[in-house]
Every structure is written in C-alpha cells, then in structure tokens.
Design brief:
The complex is a heterotrimer of chains A (587), B (402) and C (453).
Chain A (H helix, E strand, L loop, with lengths): L4 H17 L18 E5 L2 H8 L2 H8 L2 H7 L2 H17 L3 H8 L4 E6 L3 E7 L3 H21 L7 E5 L2 E7 L2 E6 L2 E5 L2 H9 L13 H7 L8 E6 H4 L3 H8 L4 H7 L2 H6 L3 E8 L3 E8 L13 E2 L2 E2 L11 E8 L2 H6 L1 H4 L5 H13 L5 H5 L6 E7 L16 E7 L3 H25 L6 E3 L2 E2 L2 E2 L1 E4 L20 E5 L2 E5 L2 H16 L8 E8 H10 L1 H12 L3 H16 L1 E11 L2 E10 L6
Antiparallel strand pairs in A: 1-2, 1-8, 2-3, 3-7, 4-5, 5-6, 6-7, 8-9, 9-10, 10-24, 11-12, 13-14, 13-22, 14-15, 15-21, 16-19, 17-18, 19-20, 20-21, 22-23, 23-24
Helix pairs in contact in A: 16-18, 20-22, 21-22
Chain B lengths: L4 H7 L11 H10 L9 E7 L9 E2 L4 H6 L11 E2 L5 E2 L4 H8 L3 E8 L7 H10 L11 H13 L5 E4 L17 E2 L22 H25 L11 H15 L5 E6 L13 H25 L6 E6 L4 E5 L5 E3 L3 E7 L5 E3 L8 E2 L2 E2 L3 E2 H13 L3 H5 L12
Parallel strand pairs in B: 1-8, 1-9, 5-13, 5-16, 6-7, 6-8
Antiparallel strand pairs in B: 2-4, 3-4, 5-12, 9-12, 10-11, 14-15
Helix pairs in contact in B: 2-6, 4-9, 7-8, 8-9
Chain C lengths: L9 H5 L12 H11 L5 H20 L6 H14 L6 H13 L3 H13 L10 H13 L5 H9 L2 H6 L12 H12 L7 H10 L3 E4 L2 E4 L9 E3 L2 E3 L3 H9 L2 H15 L8 H14 L2 H10 L16 H11 L6 H10 L22 H15 L13 H5 L5 H13 L5 H12 L6 H11 L1 H4 L2
Antiparallel strand pairs in C: 1-2, 3-4
Helix pairs in contact in C: 2-3, 3-15, 4-5, 5-16, 5-17, 6-7, 10-11, 13-14, 13-15, 16-18, 18-22, 20-22, 21-22
Classes of the chains: A alpha+beta (587), B alpha/beta (402), C mainly alpha (453).
C-alpha cells in the first residue's frame, strides 16, 4: 500500500524526533497549567458551538449591515488592517475564519491572577499554521522595532527547553506543541514552562473548588467562567459591598444573593449559544441560609415557587416574585437597620392609609408571597393629548389571603392616598386627580386621572398625563396600576388564570422578562429627552448623544427577549439568563 | 488718631472691600477684634432629624401620666437604664447611660423656645437661625459663628459638615464657604500643587493665594498622615452615624483648626425621628445607633486624650406629644432634652424634668430656652461672644464644671 | 488709605487703549480680556485676538459675528424643557453648558453678573419655570437697559416669593422686603432712611402673588401720600423705582459693582474716579455703553486690573473646559461648583456671592485643585469627557517641550515667575513619561497664578 518506504522511514524519524523533545503526548488540559490563584478564568471549552454562531452568516450580516460598521470599513486604519489580514490569508493559504477556527479549535483559556497578572492559552488544531503565523508576526515585530531604533524590544530566549518570545515590554509568550501561551508577566510563563508535565503542580485543575464546579458543567456550554469567590471575599472592598447594609428595596430584590455570594467559594457561569438563543446560567456553592432573615423567599426552609408571569399586550417587562413581605418586614432590623427619612415617612403614611393598622402584623401579613409586576408601553391619542416625556405604564398585582375583608381595607387606603396626593398638590397650587368608579368586565375599579380641560398644547403635555392611577380587585388579586388601560389588560389576563389556574414554578423565587424590541421603541419615542440628558449628564455633544442612541436601538433590535430566572436547587442559589436573538436572515 | 469705621475696615486685611460688608459683620469686626476664639476646642453638633421623642429617650418611667398617655409606647421600669427613681435612659441606650455614669454624658432637660413652631420646616429654621419666628434671617447660628471666628482670628477653616445630608441652614454664612464632606480624601489634594516658597510678589492677591496654598498643603498632609495611621484601637459599630463620627474624630485628631463639626442622624427630608406610626421599634433602632456611635466616639477621643477638647451636643427641631396617636406613634411636640457629651461637663441632669400635666396643646413646655444653651456653647466653650451671634444677650446655662 | 487710582488721571483711565511701544498688545492682555469678558478662551480665539488687536477683539465680544440666533433658540428650548421641575438642577446644568458653548460669552457673563446682583435663593421659589423666567429677564437685558431690567426684576414673582412678600397688604406693609430691595438691588447699604424704607413698603402694597402670578389689587394699595428720598406723592411701586433711578447713587452703585467685576476687587475707587462712567450710565441706563468704555479703557489694560480678581469657581472651571475646547457633564460640574461655594440659583443670601478672597480657604482650594485634577485626568465623575490630547494634535505641538509651552501660553499666557516656572519643570522631570504632561498641566492649573485672573 505504501508506495515509498522512504516516506515511512522519514515519518518514523520525525515521530521519534518529536518524542525526543518530549512533546509528543497530547498536552495536559490547559487548566492543568493555570496557577490555582487565578481569580477569574474563562474557558472556551466548546469552540465549535461558539464559532457556528459568531462566525456564522447571520451574525456577520448583523454586524456588516450596521451603517457604523460600513463607515468603519471606509476608514484608512481599517483598510490597513484588512490589508494585513489579506496578506496573512495569502501567506498562510487560508481564510481568516478558517484560521480562527483552527487556532482556537481545541479550546482557549483566559485567566486573571492577582496583581494584574494575565494568562491566555489557545490550542490549535493545526500546529503548523500556528508556527507559520507566529513566524510572520515575529518578523513584522522585529522589523517594526528596528525601524523605530528599538531592536532590543523584540527578543527570543530559550528557557527550560522552550523558546520564549517577547514583542514588547508587557508581553511574553511561547508555543508548546499545539498550544500558544501568552502572559504579561515572564515569571508566570516560566512557572508554566517549569510545570508543564508536573501533575502535582498547584494548578487550577488540582483545586477542589474547581473540581466541584466542573462536575455539573453542561457539555453543550460553549464558554464557561470560573470565579474564585473565596479570594474575592477577602478583598475588603468587595466584602464590604456584599455585606453592606442595603436599603429595603435592594434587600427585598437581592433576596439573599449577596449573603450567599459572600458565603461562597466559587461562582461558575456557563454560556450556551445557538442562533436563536443565548443562555447564561450561574451557580455558586454558598448555601442559602433560610432559617435566618432570608426566610422571606420561601416557606418552611425551602425556596418558594413563583407564579408564571402575567402577560399583557404591549408588554415591556414582566416580573414574578416569591417574597413573603411579612417575614421580610419582621426581619428589618437585620436586613436594613438604618432608619432613613424615606422609610419613616413611608411608615407614617401607611399608618394613615391603613387607619392605624400595624404595618407588619395587619398589612403585610394579609398579602400572599406571590407578587407580580408588569410594565407596558402606552399608546397615546393626539385627541386626548400626548405627553412630552412618555413613560411606560406599570402595575403590581398582589394576592390577598382574605380578599373580601382586606380588599375593602386596601381600597380605602388607596382612596386615602389619592386624597392625600390631591391635598398636597393643592397646597403647592398644582392640579389634582379626579376620581371615577368605572366597571370593566364586572370589576369595579377606582380610576383617577388628571383632567386635560384647559391644557393648551396637547402635543407636548406635562409628564403627569402619563398617569391614571387605578385600583381593581379580581377575586384574590389586587391590582394597582399606573393606568386604567393596563389595569384592564391585567384583569383580562387574571380572568383567564381563573379559568385555567397556572402552575407555580418550583424552586424559583424570581422571574424577569424584558421585551427588548418594545423597550427600544420606548427609548425611540423619548429620544429627544434621552439625548438631552446625555448632553448634560455625560458632557456629550448633541451629535454624539444621538449617534449613541441610534447605535443602542440598533443593537437592541438583535434581541427579542431577555429573561432571567433566579432560584435555588438544594439550598444553593442558581440563576439563568436567557437572551433570545433576533438575527437578520442570512442571504 | 481716630479711625472712622470705614477706614478701620480698609485697614483690616479681611474686609478689603468694605462697602459690601454686611452691617452686622462690620459691627462684629468692631466690637470683638480683641477677643480670642478658642480654636483648639471643638463643638460637634449632632442633629436628630425629624423631632426626637424626648420622653422615650430620657424616660419618666415612674410618672403615672407617662404610662397613662402611652399605652403601647410606654417603657416599664425594667426596660429603662435608671438615672434615678423617676427617670432613666431608653433600653437601647445602655452605652450612653454608662458614659453618663462616668460623667462623660449629661442631659439638658426640657429645652425649647416660646411659641415654638410645630412644623418641621418652621421649627428647623428657628433652630438653625437661632432667630425664632424671623423668616427673613438668612444665615445660621453656626455659619455666623464660623464667620466670627474668621473675622477675629483669621481661622482658615472653622466649620465642616460631615456626613450625607445637604448643607443645613445652620451652617449658612454670608461669605465663608463651609465645606461638606463624606470622606476625608475630599479635604486632601489628589495631586499636590506646587508649594511655592512664599516669596513676596508685588501682587497682594497673589501673595494671599500663595499663602493659602501652603496652609492648604499643610492641612492636606496632616490629614493624609492621620488616614495612613489606621491602628485605631477603638471599635466603631457598623452604623452610618458611627462612620461619620469616626471621620469627625479623625478631623479632630489631624488638628487642622476645625472647631465646629455638624452632622445628623436620621437623614434629610422629614427625618428618621419623625415617628408618627409604629414608633417603638423604629425609635429604638435609632437610639441604639445614637447611643453606640456616640459612645464609641467618646471612647476613641478618650483613648487619644482628646476628649478634653471636644464637646458633642444633640439638637432636634422639637420633641413629641405626650399622648400617643392611633398609629402607635406620636405627633409633633415642643420641648425635649438635649444630650451633651464631653469631659468637662457638669455631670448628671441639668435643669428640671418636664411637667407631664402642665402641657401646651399636648406638648411639653420648655424650661430652658435653646438660646441659653447655645450661649453656653458659644461663650464658655468656643469663646465666641454669643451676643454677636444670637443678637441679644442670653444667660449661659451652667453646662460646665466650674 | 492708599489709592492706586489716584495715580491715574480719570480721563486717561477711561480713554480707549491704543497699543504702543511702551504698552504693547501682548498675549497677556488677550488672556486678561477673555478672562474678564468671557469664560476664558480657546487657543484659536487667543491667536485671532493677537492678530486683530484690542479694538476689534472687544468689538467682537460686544457684537459677536455670525449667527448666534440658532444657538440661542436651541438652548432656550433646552432650558424650557429642563425648567419643568421644582428644583433648579436641570436649569443649572443647561446654563453651565450654555456658558461653555455660547458664541456670545459676554452676554452670559453679564447674565451671571445680574443673577448675582439680583440675588435670591430659588429654593424658596420652588418653581423651575419661574426661575427660568427670571434668568431670561437677566439675559434679555444683560447688556440692555438697566432701568427696564430693574423694574422687571423687582416686579417679578420670584422677588416677592424669595423675600417673603407674597401678600403686601395695606395694613401690613413689608418693611423687610422694601429694605432688601432698596439696599441690595437699588442703592447699596446705608443709603436710605428708615422712613424711606417704610414709605417704599407702603408703595408696594397691593401686590399679591396668586398662583405664582403677580396681581395688583387696588383695594389693598395704600393710596395716601408717601415721602421717599425727598420726593412726595401718591407713589406706586413703579414710581419708587423711577425715583430711585433719578438718584445718582443708583448709577454709582451699579458702576461700582461693574468696576469690581471687570477691573479690580482689590481696591475701592474714589467717587470722582468713577464719575465719567456714572454720568454716562445715568443718561440712558444703557449697560452696553458703560461696558464698552470699561473694556476698551486704558485702565482695563493696566496693572491696576491685571490679576486683581480671585476667579469664581465657575470662572475657574470653565476656563479649563473652554481652554480644552471640551464639553463636560454640567450636571456633575454644577454639583462640584456648589461644593466650592457657587451654586447657581442659590447664592447664600440676598447679598449674592461676595466672592473675592472669600472664594478661597484651604478646603475650597483643595476642592478647586481636585476638580481640575478630575477634569484633566478624566476621573470620576468626568470619565471620558475632556479629551486631553486633542488640543496638542490640533495645534500641532511636535514635542513635549512644545506641549508644555502650549499649556503655559493657553492658561497663563506664559506670565509667571521664573522660580515657579523652574519648579513646574522640575516637578515633572522625574515622572513617568506616560502621564507627565497631564501632571504638568494639573500643576499649571493648580498654581496660585491660575486661581486669580
């Protein structure tokens, strides 16, 4: 079969040569080389999955169709860059995408170590390509250095059987087998070279935390990030940030995540990607202590179950939480010990609205832990008026333990609040709200609104015309909405739920969903306001601010939805972020 | 040779532009130029924002009227750190009570003023200006004191606001810029300016700025040295107020000439002490922060033998009504105790306990006018002529050991 | 008392400066002019002024060429949008932005002058819309007619609100209001008798503020005879202002303040010295005419005026920003300027910012230097705002030496003591090359010579 025995001899000879240099065996995993004090490590473990998307036709279309990108291609710097790429493509007889795929084809790792030390490794499927490319670049660098009369800058040096290179002050690298290793500190590179076959080496892969984190990795994950919380928690600034007294809202939303983080040794994030979705999931090893002040996110030491989110037309965002307000407020001395003006004012007002009822025992205790929020885009009508600044409408939906009795209490409180707002506005010579009681699908609502009689310019109305505060109750659902339109949409949605009771999502205490395209449209209709704000807030020129705004909307167009789910599995917090993409169809 | 007033002002380095000097300051410059302000002494004024309930701070636990009027807020004898058989500190104020036992905390009873304002804005304005019921007064009593110190002594930086509230009217001065800081590094150069060896130029204004630059450099460096030295052995509790007082202690330790420090507990706006509803727990939390933070501050200064130089006093726009309301809170009242801390105080209770039967529309009547307290602070502590600051002469209360 | 002005003949002092061999037109005077009549200048402006000479440059500042309307209209719109609030923070940000970008800086500088002269704390007004109205009154007549401006300001709702005079009832004339208006806006302190004050208060009776609008209720006006500053009759509030304007003291008061604003805050000029300006102003209260004389005068371009003012925080910060031809976040800048003692719309008292040496104490000085540091080093909250390198590229500084010289020319017109210069270079000699130009610039901007102007 073999036509020329010499070839066999030559091959054998070559193989033995490689054996002699000791690099014939497949290299150990890159994590075997990364020092274990690496604080943050990104691993490209499944390169193919990532390349399929980001080097795919759709993403290319998405990038190249952006006018800013087209403008960039006309710039000289970019043209020069393309020239270099083209030169390399010709010299290496490949195209840049194939080259990238091959150079990173076996995976890549990037680590951040203490004191600004960095390491990067890339495993190539084609070691020849790697060395060829390196030789060319080395030649470039040398020429360039000589032209600038600085030929000492680019150098190479043998170290422990490996050639180390440097193109400049802050960079050293080498190639071992099919692996390219780069660092900004030579001692790191030396450490790696010295220990390249040492299995006992204190490497990341020998770290127990790392091993534990690796156990549940999804094989589909294209990219993972491993963060050593045990090191970070010793940094006083970070530790302070995690244990700092939060304000009540932050404490309610954070739901023990900060506590768990400061009790964690590691955090692992995984990214799965395809052309439709981008899925980021995170887990940590810190346990959630449900026996203490954190009891409010669950029942009987277990994380509660949130209801599915409410859906309404023109929805921008929807949230569903499991938060036991009664337990939360009972633990306030632990959760938010500072007694700020805002909190005391809030309690004073709640005391008035709820006729002296105890806020914790008689108000929060009446509210079930399943709480939902919705925000939706508002449609304005030029006949009734369009506000100069258009805000989304938003609403909260509580569930009551005793709807028949507490529902009335809540409605009375609402009307008192409206009365107080009117009274205070009157004191400041500002127009007040009119109160109406319309009925929608047999549900009687308390609707209040600012009459627009006498308003001269209906195309640029005051910001207050964004609000038509409305209260409504459907069975045990208490709806507080910023507009009657949204209240009605929620009533529709809740009535449907009455027919088909939704199933709760177990082990999940927070659900968030953003509809990016509609969010973009809100930004678009408030463009002028945002641009002006950027001018004085960030010191931008009008043109800069407008360009950024356009860019942002354009980027947002590539996303359909962003959703986040936070909960716990066996007492360990978990979070999942999903971005559904809206890439243009490739030609 | 006789100077006219105008001429006098022109010879003074400070009033280089006499005709715009406000009349009250011209008077000040005239009458007080010989007096010496005590710049090695520090007055720390701690505002309890929102109107502190004096009756649940220094609690008349043995008074039946107290018990009768406060069905839920009432503290029983075991819940009180007793001063005597009639009254004692709130149960969360153990630390301050201990300092009281050591003579480092004193209580000035029933402080207020005639026809006192019952709304926050009005009462605050009255306390800030120390000109009650004069809504046209635009400067604060401490702002005027700062300006007085500047006039007499060329003191560069007599007053500072520390903490995260906005500049209160109390510190407003016609001309002196009073700094407001949250962190010490706001009073340190990020990059030191060139320290020009002070050589006289032919421009007096340039000489002045040169001189100020070297003063500022010196102060900035003093602060830098203080902050480097973080060995402080005294633990502060983890409250915002404690952090603020710790910063104040560092300012004092750095010895950069600050003699008036203002700070607050309970924040801006209506204030954390404005407990109209669910008072019991919220008030207790605040008193604990107050007591433990102030106590740590005292210990810190004592540790560095600085307490002799420092006097801390609380102020609050009003006390609260004797009777609690339907929301288990209290309404806006009138007289309340002021708490003072330092090493040279007359120990114990100063003044009479308030009467719980002789009320003014539900609130306690004052027995000491706050301006008599201010007079003691100004005349006897800072050695600032209180008549210049308060407009008329008020007799200082006996606040200090003779 | 020594009065340097005595050395000058008033006639010579107010005559137009014509460059000569003894008193040449140098960069020093260009910088001086732009500091006083504007908020500093870019290098291009300095260079142009060098070429054109004093007469044409002052003329350009008084009557800016080109289309300023477009700029004014768009900024009027920004301000209106920002006024829709109880607080004046938005207005403050936009006004600062306007000062930075305006093609007519003298107008904004004079607006600031009147804003300070007719000082009120807008915290008491609680309406951005009213605060903006007042700002616009000041701006419209910044270089216009003082008599008109005074009438408009005194009768504006903000004045009544801020001076606690919302109801001027016949039985309760507001003496405090009258005193503050007479002493702070019209004539200066100690110029009127108690009787003048009380009778003026009576003349103002009938003015009521109803829903933030001034209404004159005739039934509440005291129609009996009043005797004010020597004149007698049934005067109303407008009559009072007209009586005041007939007094030479009124013109003298303003001219004196203008002297302090444009010439020197170091010394007090004699009556007779200001006489020519007072006469000019009394004729028709044309503000621009007086300022034209001041800015063109021999006195303005003399050592009596040069570096005889402490820069206000606004002047200090804006000269840096304008020098670098940059835009920065004026929301944050407004806050920082507040900490340095100059919070637009909120002067400490109705006397305004007294300024001068009072701008400086060690904390304020540290604050100023740290602000300069934050702007130049692009640190919080001014990240990525002032592009430090672009001016060196734009004006083709080829070497580090040229860049240093450029900074010295731009900000100090190279006028500094040799010992300071040596120190400047020495202090940067041992620094790392990457940021030393930045350090050098900060050293220049924090040296005492840059604090005054």
């Amino acid at each position: 079969m073999v036509r020329n025995p010499f070839i066999i001899i030559a091959l054998l000879f070559l193989t033995s040569l490689i054996c002699l240099t000791g690099e014939s065996e497949p290299l150990p995993k890159p994590s075997q080389w990364i020092p274990q004090d690496a604080i943050l490590t990104f691993e490209l473990s499944n390169p193919q999955a990532l390349f399929d998307v980001i080097l795919g036709a759709k993403v290319e279309k998405a990038i190249t169709s952006v006018p800013e990108f087209q403008a960039l291609t006309n710039e000289n710097g970019f043209k020069e860059f393309l020239g270099v790429v083209h030169y390399l493509e010709t010299a290496l007889a490949t195209d840049w995408k194939a080259a990238v795929k091959s150079l990173l084809g076996e995976g890549a790792v990037f680590s951040v170590l203490p004191e600004d030390q960095l390491v990067f490794t890339a495993d190539s499927t084609n070691p020849d390509l790697l060395t060829q490319l390196h030789d060319i670049l080395f030649g470039f660098a040398k020429n360039d250095a000589e032209q600038h009369g600085d030929s000492d800058r680019v150098k190479l040096k043998e170290y422990n059987g490996v050639t180390g290179y440097s193109f400049g002050n802050d960079e050293v690298h080498c190639i071992i087998g099919n692996r390219f290793v780069l660092s900004n500190k030579s001692n790191i590179l030396k450490r790696i070279i010295d220990n390249r076959t040492n299995v006992e080496y204190e490497s990341l892969s020998n770290l127990n935390h790392y091993k534990n984190a690796q156990m549940d990795i999804d094989p589909e994950a294209a990219l993972t990030a491993f963060l050593r919380m045990d090191i970070l928690n010793q940094v006083s600034g970070i530790n302070n940030a995690l244990t700092r007294n939060l304000n009540p809202m932050a404490a309610l939303l954070a739901a023990g995540i900060t506590d768990s983080l400061s009790a964690s040794n590691w955090l692992l994030a995984e990214l799965c990607i395809d052309e439709e979705n981008l899925l980021l999931s995170t887990e940590i090893d810190g346990k959630l202590d449900m026996s203490g002040p954190m009891a409010f996110i669950g029942t009987n030491d277990r994380v509660g179950a949130a209801l599915p989110m409410i859906e309404v037309p023109n929805q921008i965002a929807s949230f569903s939480f499991f938060r036991d307000l009664y337990k939360f407020y009972s633990a306030k001395d632990d959760l938010f010990p500072e007694r700020t003006s805002g909190l005391i004012f809030f309690e004073n007002m709640m005391g008035i609205f709820f006729t002296g009822r105890d806020l914790t025992e008689e108000v929060w205790k009446e509210i079930k832990p399943e709480i939902r929020f919705v925000a939706a885009e508002q449609k304005f009508d030029s006949s009734t008026g369009i506000p100069a600044v258009q805000l989304p409408s938003f609403a909260v939906v509580f569930k009551l333990f005793h709807p028949e009795t507490f529902g009335i209490v809540a409605e009375e409180a609402w009307q008192k609040a409206i009365g107080l707002i009117n009274f205070t506005r009157g004191q400041n010579a500002l127009p007040g709200l009119l109160i109406d009681r319309p009925v929608y699908k047999d549900v009687k609502m308390t609707l209040t609104y600012f009459p627009s009689v006498g308003e001269e310019d209906k195309s640029k109305q005051d910001i207050r015309f964004n609000f038509r505060p409305t209260l409504a109750r459907v069975k045990d659902n208490l709806i507080l909405s910023s507009t009657d339109q949204l209240a009605e949409d929620i009533i529709d949605s809740v009535l449907l739920e009455e027919k088909n009771p939704p199933e709760k999502i177990s082990n999940v205490h927070s659900l968030v969903q953003l509809d990016v395209d509609r969010l973009a449209s809100i930004l678009e209709s408030n463009r002028e306001t945002i641009v002006r704000n950027d001018m004085v807030e960030k010191g931008k020129t009008k043109e800069q601010a407008e360009a950024e705004q356009v860019m942002l909307t354009r980027i947002m167009q590539y996303f359909n939805q962003v959703s986040l789910q936070v909960g716990a599995q066996d007492d360990t917090p978990q979070a999942e972020l999903k971005l559904s993409l809206n890439l243009p169809a490739a030609e | 040779m006789k100077f006219s007033r105008r001429q006098f002002l022109h010879t003074s380095a400070i009033c280089s532009f006499g005709s715009l000097a406000p009349s009250f300051l011209q008077k000040t410059a005239f009458t007080a130029a010989s007096k010496k302000v005590k710049t090695d002494r520090v007055l720390v004024v701690l505002q309890l924002s929102g109107g502190n309930d004096g009756l649940n701070t220094i609690v008349p636990y043995a008074d039946d009227e107290y018990g009768r009027n406060r069905s839920t807020l009432r503290l029983q004898a075991p819940e009180v750190h007793k001063i005597d058989s009639y009254c004692g500190f709130h149960y969360e104020m153990k630390a301050m009570w201990e300092q009281f036992q050591d003579g480092h905390v004193s209580v000035i009873q029933s402080v207020g003023y005639p026809k006192s304002n019952r709304d926050h804005a009005g009462a605050l304005r009255d306390w800030y200006t120390a000109y009650p019921h004069d809504e046209n007064c635009e400067t604060g009593w401490l702002g005027r004191s700062i300006e007085y110190a500047n006039q007499v002594d060329h003191t560069d930086l007599p007053g500072v606001l520390v903490g995260n509230i906005s500049m209160p009217l109390a510190l407003n001065a016609e001309r002196t810029i009073v700094p407001s800081i949250r962190r010490l590094d706001q009073m340190q150069f990020q990059q030191e300016p060139l320290s020009a060896d002070i050589h006289k130029t032919d421009n007096a204004l340039l000489d002045f700025v040169n001189q100020q630059t070297s003063i500022a450099l010196e102060k900035s460096r003093k602060l830098t040295n203080i902050t480097k030295d973080i060995h402080s052995s005294v633990e502060y509790p983890p409250f915002q107020l404690a952090k603020t007082l710790r910063t104040a202690a560092q300012l004092i330790r750095a010895d950069i000439g600050v003699c008036i420090i203002y700070t607050a507990l309970g924040g801006d706006g209506f204030g954390g002490f404005d407990n109209h509803a669910s008072q019991r727990d919220n008030h207790a939390a605040l008193l604990r922060q107050l007591s433990e933070s102030v106590s740590a501050f005292i210990n810190d200064l004592k540790h560095d033998r600085l307490l002799d130089r420092v006097l801390l006093t609380t102020v609050s726009e009003f006390g609260r009504t004797l009777k609690e309301n339907g929301r288990r809170g209290t309404g806006h009242g009138a007289a309340a105790p002021m708490l003072a801390a330092g090493a040279q105080l007359k120990p114990g209770l100063i003044g009479q306990c308030p009467s719980l039967t002789d009320l003014d529309d539900g609130a306690l009547k004052h027995q000491i006018d706050f301006r008599n307290v201010f007079a003691a602070l100004l005349d006897q502590w800072l050695c600032i002529d209180s008549k210049e600051i308060l407009g008329v002469s008020f007799d200082p209360i006996p606040l200090f050991q003779s | 008392m020594k009065n340097q002005n005595a050395a000058f003949d008033p006639q010579w002092a107010w005559e137009s400066y014509v460059p000569s061999d003894e008193r040449p037109w140098t960069l020093k005077w260009v910088g001086h002019l732009y500091r006083r009549a504007a908020f500093g200048a870019s290098w291009e402006q300095l260079r142009q002024a060098m070429e054109e000479g004093p007469a044409r440059t002052v003329e350009r500042l008084l009557n800016p060429s080109g289309n300023t309307d477009e700029f004014e209209t768009s900024f009027d719109e920004y301000e209106s949008a920002a006024a829709n609030s109880d607080s004046t923070e938005g207005l403050r940000a936009w006004w600062l932005r306007r000062m930075i970008q305006t093609p007519d800086p003298l107008k904004e500088k004079m607006t600031l002058f009147w804003h300070n002269h007719f000082a009120i704390d807008c915290g008491k007004v609680k309406s951005g819309v009213l605060a903006l109205q007042r700002l616009r009154l000041n701006r419209e007549d910044a270089l216009g007619n003082y008599a008109h401006l005074l009438q408009a300001i005194v009768h504006h709702p903000t004045t009544f609100l801020a001076l606690n005079a919302e109801k001027n009832r016949k039985v309760l004339p507001n003496d405090n209001f009258a005193k503050k208006v007479l002493e702070n806006y019209c004539l200066g302190p100690d110029m009127v008798s108690e009787q003048d004050i009380h009778e003026t208060a009576r003349a103002f009776t009938g003015w009521f503020l109803i829903r933030n609008e001034c209404r004159f209720l005739d039934r509440e006006h005291d129609h009996t005879n009043k005797r004010i500053l020597g004149e007698e009759g049934d005067f109303d509030s407008q009559d009072v202002i007209n009586i005041i304007l007939r007094r030479p003291d009124a013109a003298q008061f303003i001219v004196r303040k203008l002297y302090r604003f444009f010439i020197s805050e170091v010394e007090e000029p004699a009556h007779s010295f200001l006489e020519p300006l007072v006469r000019l102003f009394t004729a028709d209260f044309n503000i621009k005419k007086v300022i034209t004389v001041i800015l063109k005068s021999n006195l303005f371009f003399s050592e009596t005026a040069y570096r005889k003012r402490v820069k206000s925080p606004i002047e200090y910060a804006l000269e840096i920003v304008r020098g670098f031809e940059a835009n920065v976040s004026t929301t944050h800048l407004g806050n920082d300027l507040k900490a340095l003692g100059q919070d637009l719309f909120h002067p400490p008292t109705v006397k305004g910012w007294l300024g001068g040496r009072h701008w400086i104490n060690s904390a304020a000085l540290i604050g100023r230097c740290n602000l300069a540091h934050a702007l130049i080093s692009n640190s919080a909250p001014y990240e990525k705002q002032l592009a430090f390198d672009t001016v060196f590229e734009k004006y083709k500084c080829k070497s580090d030496e040229e860049s240093c010289q450029f900074i010295l020319n731009l900000f100090l017109q190279d006028d500094l003591d040799e010992t300071v210069r040596k120190q400047l270079y020495r202090s940067t000699a041992d620094k790392k090359p990457s940021s030393w130009l930045q350090r050098f610039t900060i050293d220049v901007l924090t040296c005492p010579e840059f604090q005054i102007g």
